[in-house]
Amino acid sequence: MNGQRVGSSGWQVTFTDNRRVIRSISKPGRWTVDELIRLVPGSLTQGIPNVAAPVETQPQPSSR
To answer: H or E segment at 36?
Structure first.
């Protein structure tokens, strides 16, 4: 736990620690998932290491 979190309210998405907003992005209108996938890594979370364990890839079933 690092005390940092991403939140959304209306049309604003924020990245905060336990005391203040660190970064935010906003736009007039709703965000789409595709927009957030494209924008968040270069804006809200840029330079912040991902401490989550990597998702392991599922083995593909062998075709016989």
So the answer is: helix 33-39
